[in-house]
Design goal:
Elements: H1 3-25, E1 38-43, H2 51-62, E2 68-72, E3 83-84, H3 91-94, H4 96-104, E4 109-112, H5 116-126, E5 132-136, E6 148-154, E7 182-186, H6 194-204, E8 211-219, E9 223-224, E10 240-245, H7 251-260, E11 262-268, H8 277-289, E12 294-298, H9 299-302, H10 313-316, E13 319-322, E14 324-328, H11 333-345
Parallel strand pairs: 1-5, 1-6, 2-4, 2-5, 6-7, 7-8, 10-11, 10-12, 12-13
Antiparallel strand pairs: 3-4, 8-14, 9-13
């Protein structure tokens, strides 16, 4: 559909979002405060902005001093209501990203609940030891007023030039960024010019206390999903690979693979894709078509493929995932995390 035809939809979507925010601003819809610090990690655009790697970084740091619970809506799950995520949960019951986090941090309480206030009250009742809640993707929610808002901004899609959905990728009003405390600009180029940083800082900072940090993705060697069945040697550079992704913005993932390997096929699926038998058969056919190739997927997709019984042996031995984290430019990660801890403890 052309942008001209989508423009009226975007206009009415913007009207609806604006009206909803005004209802909260006027106090007609109520934001609830809680007696426990809540860090909200959100964005104002659709597609991958790095919320999950940021949540993992904050959990890894804050769990040294706090008992943490992560609260997510559990987008893409087939269930409703409050559910606690276990390491044995199925991603269709709890969502792929919450399961990914639980598998990485099995000692952390991970909960999914579309009504965030209900979820927080249940966490408080059932896990009184928890003294810090990280709320994934709740910036637009507004029924909960977090202590700290961390807003993820995609450097490749500047919000000042973007349009509301479905014409562009904005899911919320750029004017709402005044509610953020920290901006984490992701996917910055290797050599980001100082003037580009100044322009972004001027666009983002509305209030003196707001802080901006610039980051990029850092990826590591692909890891075998089934280590006991994979070759002992790491995936060597230049090897033939099949790129498999079902994430919001696969661009950086594909770019990394093209830089390191010979990508013989790309399988790009919708975000939160549910893998079925036909997908496994399609991947097996691609492996047969490209002898010697390996399948490399994302961490988020990998958690959907851990059922060994449903993956044929020839695929299990050639199935890898690409671990990533957020790398702060100019080693500012410690500065960010320490200031975040100060804000959690302060007033």
């Amino acid at each position: 559909m052309s942008k001209a035809l989508l423009a009226p939809i975007a206009y009415f979507y913007k009207l609806g979002v604006t009206f909803r925010h005004r209802l909260f601003d006027w106090g007609i819809l109520k934001s609830e405060r809680f007696d426990i610090p809540i860090i909200c990690i959100g964005n104002i655009t659709v597609g991958g902005t790095g919320k999950t790697p940021m949540a993992e970084m904050i959990i890894a740091y804050m769990s040294q001093k706090h008992n943490i619970a992560l609260l997510s809506r559990g987008y893409g799950r087939k269930t409703k209501g409050y559910r606690e995520v276990l390491t044995t949960s199925h991603y269709r019951e709890v969502g792929d990203e919450p399961l990914q986090i639980k598998l990485k941090f099995p000692e952390t309480v991970v909960v999914v609940c579309e009504k965030r206030a209900v979820g927080i009250r249940r966490i408080r009742a059932e896990h009184p030891e928890v003294d810090l809640i990280i709320m994934d993707d709740g910036f637009q929610h507004r029924y909960v007023e977090p202590k700290i808002n961390v807003l993820m901004i995609d450097a490749t899609r500047p919000i000042q030039h973007d349009k509301m959905m479905p014409v562009g990728t904005l899911r919320d009003l750029p004017s709402e960024i005044y509610r953020a405390h920290y901006f984490i600009v992701t996917k910055c180029p290797e050599k980001m010019a100082p003037i580009d940083r100044r322009i972004l800082r001027k666009v983002l900072i509305q209030i003196a206390y707001q802080r901006v940090y610039y980051t990029r993705y850092e990826s590591f060697l692909p890891q075998p999903l089934f280590a006991d069945e994979a070759p002992r040697e790491p995936l060597s550079q230049g090897r033939k690979v099949i790129a498999l992704s079902g994430i919001g913005n696969p661009g950086p993932f594909l770019k990394t693979l093209h830089e390191r390997y010979k990508v013989v096929a790309e399988v790009t699926l919708d975000d939160h894709h549910v893998y079925r038998i036909r997908d496994i058969r399609m991947l097996a056919a691609l492996l047969a078509k490209h002898p010697g190739a390996a399948i490399v997927t994302t961490e988020k997709d990998a958690v959907k493929m851990i059922n060994r019984a449903k993956i044929p042996p020839e695929m299990r031995s050639n199935l890898y995932y690409l671990p990533i984290n957020i790398s702060f430019i100019e080693d500012s990660a410690t500065d960010f995390l320490q200031k975040l801890e100060e804000d959690v403890r302060g007033n």
